[in-house]
Amino acid sequence: MLTGVELKSDDQIRTMRRAGLITRAALQAARAACVPGATTADVDAAGARVIEEAGATSNFKGYHGYPATLCVSVNEVVVHGIPGDRVLQPGDMVSIDGGAIVDGFHGDSALTVFVGGEEQADPGHVRLSQVTEEILWAGIAAMATGRKVGDIGAAIEARAQELAPDLGLIEDFTGHGIGTQMHMDPEVLNYDAKRKGPKLRPGMCLAIEPMLVAGDIATETLADDWTVVTADGSRASHWEHTVARHARGIWVLTAEDGGAERLAPYGVTPVALD
Ligand code: MF3
Ligand code: CO
């Protein structure tokens, strides 16, 4: 992590929007590739093609030696699943995480998808993903209404408690500042902590990324030094967006509509800079 928070100009935020939309397009292509019989490497290739064709580059590939463009995390894999020859089965839940760099600025986003569609999946698993996405939006809303970065984690935890006290909110991984690097200050906790962090200020760009599990929140990292699984084998979901706060509001850079639809229930209207 760099020390100090990097504040972006409106023009730099516009560049980050371009990175955000390419990131989004890559994830949509990867999501569409999650069909029964496909391998996780096929999913990675679908996302990589979009980034390449857009003339952007992957921020994951080569990051501390990471070997792929996307993280493709199946079922009990929480994050950092390395794409390979694993064959996807109907009902598998797949968290796809990726990002693109455009003109030196980064995007980062993640979503969870069901192989063969939600109809093929256990309703409890579908709920796990839906609640994870919703607590992400609660955290994003708090980036608009909050005073300090720690208000985001407090909102994520409160919404998780409200919607699903039975699900486990992962504490081992956090969101982060993002801009000229993928991972920058500040740390964005996914839970309420005494340490509230820096003030939310115009020019701040954050990747907010909660993870929920069906069981216990203990995680383990496999021998490949990347793959993070739940210790009890329960399923996991991960959702993430890159969000800018500017002088007139927030803008969800990795969402097509800037976050308008999903923020409305929270009384937040995102403001696009384009
Ligand atoms: N996607 C993670 C994040 O959201 C970072 C992945 S590390 C990588 O912060 F090496 F896999 F790229
Ligand atoms: Co991230």
The SS-based structural class is alpha+beta
The total domain count is: 1
Distance between the termini: 30 Å
Q: Give the SSE order as H and E letters.
A: HHEEEEEEEHHEEEEEEEEEEH
Account of the protein in words:
With 274 residues, the chain is of the alpha+beta class. The chain has one domain (10-266): Creatinase/methionine aminopeptidase superfamily (Creatine Amidinohydrolase, Alpha-Beta Complex), CATH 3.90.230. Helix content is 28%, strand content 23%. The protein is built from 5 helices and 17 strands. The protein has helices at residues 10-32, 40-53, 123-145, 150-163, 260-263, and strands at residues 57-58, 70-74, 77-79, 93-98, 100-102, 105-106, 109-114, 168-169, 175-177, 184-188, 204-208, 211-213, 219-221, 228-230, 236-238, 241-246, 249-252. Strands 10-9-11-16-17 form a 5-stranded antiparallel sheet, with helices on both faces. A 3-stranded antiparallel sheet has the order 1-5-6. Strands 2-4-7 form a 3-stranded antiparallel sheet, sandwiched between helices. A hairpin with a 6-residue loop joins strand 9 (175-177) and strand 10 (184-188). Helix 1 (10-32) packs antiparallel against helix 2 and helix 3 runs antiparallel to helix 4 (150-163). The longest helix is centred in the first third of the chain and has 23 residues, at 10-32. The two termini are 30 Å apart. The chain binds 2-amino-4-trifluoromethylsulfanyl-butyric acid and cobalt (II) ion (CO). 2-amino-4-trifluoromethylsulfanyl-butyric acid (MF3) binds at residues 60, 63-64, 66, 71, 80, 97, 108, 176, 207, 209, 240. 2-amino-4-trifluoromethylsulfanyl-butyric acid binds at residues 60, 63-64, 66, 71, 80, 97, 108, 176, 207, 209, 240.
